[in-house]
Amino acid sequence: MKARSVVFTHVQWPFTIFGLPPALMILAVAPAVAVYGLAILLGGIALSMIAFALVLAVGLSVAYRLARRDRHIDSVALGVALFWNVSPRRWLLAGASPAARSRRTRP
């Protein structure tokens, strides 16, 4: 008799930081940090914190809406190349010969 484990992914909650997956949190904070650094470089020190706060608020609100709609949006958006239309080629080579695995061709 085989033991079987049933995984209910629709019930499981992924690890979150303040309600957002870590990768999505990084994607929300990175543009704010870039705007902050750009404002500092351009000499807008007084506007840098305001711009940082505005871009961070917009980024976190968009990320929070995405996370509320789908709990696993980070794995969907960041783990699948076809989501971003990066490559139409399938990269899963399980069971392929070593020659096929070592060959890297660009489409």
Automatic annotation (TrEMBL):
Keywords: Membrane, Transmembrane, Transmembrane helix. It comes from the Bacteria. The chain crosses the membrane at residues 12-34, 40-64. The keyword Membrane applies. This is Membrane protein.
